[in-house]
């Protein structure tokens, strides 16, 4: 069968979505796909471009991965721009002279930033904000300047202003219209937004018509405005809207709109039925859609059309919710009340900077539009009212008025939502699709997320999604239980509170008061961990011993053959030669397999139960402490060598790592905790893949939180910048204790944070701003744990009762004859069942 | 049938760990012993985990599923009934069990598996 030769021109976010949809359709083998990408890298997330200056790298923003494209079988030509389409011969020519024949073309050429033709706009240090290369130019330019101006106070302009502010420039926004975000907001909303942004130190100038840009007296440029005023600045960033990239289509003779844009029909086809256009370059019904979600919808339509399926693009809702410099802003539907007979309700709180407005139809039954500034929590609910024509409650203003005791806000019953209601707009997942996922076996939110991708984009729909899923499960008679197990009708967080509030000191007491049965392998270790986090008693103390997983019971990690591995603490990965020699001597004496771990320590494998106390006696005598490798607890603080030795280091990462490891060692948590400290932005300690990552800067320490490696790797989020040491430690204290208090069983910090309503911002409020007023309490509780630390192995060796547990048999002096080893690469390894059967294995060497 | 003439003493009650397990060796066979003080009951089952292939059952966590006392394998966490040794997750697997009895401060066992 001949494959259809398909050429995609443009590898932006929408082009990437097209490729992904095609690959996921399972039909991509029918096509021979070539992609022209003029930029030097594959598709990346332009929506979050400003995070590049807040510490994210090009890799963080990347969407397309070369390996992924290769696996999909798509041929990508990077750094190569398509310059001509010969529609007669059906050939595409590139700027490098490549000529490729095609059957079908998909144009996803996107848009370019509009630069107003003001005299002087082409001067040096006059830049735009669109690509990663633009960001690099901005960075270079900003390095020599003090002041920056963004021309344009729309959505993109304010994003760009954030970028300039993050670069440390004194930042101004110059807007032609009389208010910010003129398209989405009204005057009152614009004013609240302006006040909030000015509070953040950005100067806003509205109603300014720039006449020319000339040499400045005290800065690089002077902008002169029509009203006679002027503004001096070192850098000018144009962000005054976008224009479709239609030049290729134009020269190929495709139909173009009067004001630009490649004309497409409902099938996303251009005037040439071999050629599609999708995203910001396409003009549908006289409109350009400058948001990513409609572009994604077009990409999916184009894929369906290529596969001969019936799917059309019928416009898109342009409602938006976003955070501009930390300020929530949302706009829905007819926000300005243009519809005939419409009326509005408004709420203004100048004290806290909150503005809310809803527009309803003349009967007061339907929601037509809304504006939210400063607090956009109601966005999801209002959007569902507007999109699905759900009848409004008797008093529509109750939807936006704050609750202060008294009547609760009328809840939007999710059962009122039609099947077609879009729950997740990033991935276009409807309520119907969620119901389908549940029908086909998903039994919780996590399952639905995996199956449908709902809630995995911006995360704005998380609360609504949870509501819909739980409601649908309940409707199907599935009990939605958050109980930890059959013995306790509580979550881990609730158990934690019960332990704290009732001052409960043992599992039996908790079971007696709040549970039933005998407990199990789920609730016992969980409660053991909570008791340890709260009271920090010796884990092998009588009432606690039966609660621990075998690893915690024997203070070592059980391996597949029932032997254990031993990991002494090597704080920060710093170790003296003498101590290293001790590790070697012990390993040799007990014939232990020896391996270096990823956490910069040494793991000794193959120790039998009865050998553990002997091995640890030697290690403790040499000054080692337990490494807690066996516990759901703080593991290691990895570090690079830092400024002490490294030519590039800017601070003492090893010193900080050792202090932090010693501060938190032994701390029990819902899951293991890993830390790292890097001495400069080269990041050799890989701190951004840790629960707590710290990177030295010229001005202090940057703190990253909630990253992890493992099965589902996740980069940590930049939490706070340029902290001094005391503040850094205070934030970590609060963060860890808050996680321990509220985390679920076996929930890593990343998942925990994703499940916090409000995510990273909420965590910042709690930890930095102390919004819950519990900062002091968290620090005190941490101090209690730190103050009561003791090495569990040292304690065990002093306790004859505890040592009795390490006898292999209560009634015989023998060893487990099922533990046998063979030699491999000069070290032991467990014998396989076949080797055991064949009697090839070495008998174990006994060490007295 | 209450004669215990062929039963043998294994260990003292204070060798057992309340709410947890220890291991004994009888005729070269490893037997896991669990003492549940709330019922004043001792259970004896095979120490060999047939799924993990290692002698580790005595190091598992004991608890209950419904009213049935169980132990979870420390390797892969399958649950085994302490009463009849069957694996709750896999019908094909069953561990041997032994009759034991606390006689004052001494634990006695019938060395023939049930």
Summarize this structure briefly.
With 848 residues, chain A is an alpha/beta fold.
Give a written overview of the molecule.
The complex is a heterodimer of chains A (848) and B (114). With 848 residues, chain A is α/β, with parallel strands linked by helices. Among the domains of chain A are: 4-111 and 244-306, FAD/NAD(P)-binding domain; 126-240, FAD/NAD(P)-binding domain, CATH 3.50.50.60; 634-787, Sulfite Reductase Hemoprotein, domain 1 (2-Layer Sandwich), CATH 3.30.413. Chain A is built from 27 helices and 38 strands. Chain A is globular, with a radius of gyration of 31 Å. In chain A, helix 21 (725-742) crosses helix 24. Chain A has a 5-stranded parallel sheet, covered by helices on one side. In chain A, strands 9-16-10-11-12 form a 5-stranded parallel sheet. In chain A, strands 21-22-25-24-23 form a 5-stranded antiparallel sheet, with helices on both faces. With 114 residues, chain B is an all-beta fold. Chain B has a single domain, classed as Rieske [2Fe-2S] iron-sulphur domain (Rieske Iron-sulfur Protein, 3-layer Sandwich). Helix content of chain B is 0%, strand content 46%. Chain B contains no helices and 12 strands. In chain B, strand 5 (48-49) and strand 6 (54-55) form a beta hairpin. The A-B interface holds A 486-487, 517-521, 523-525, 542, 545-550, 553-554, 558, 560-562, 804-805, 807-812, 814, 816, 818-819, 833 and B 10-11, 15-20, 22-26, 30, 33, 36, 38, 48, 52-56, 59-67, 69-70, 72, 74-75, 77, 79.
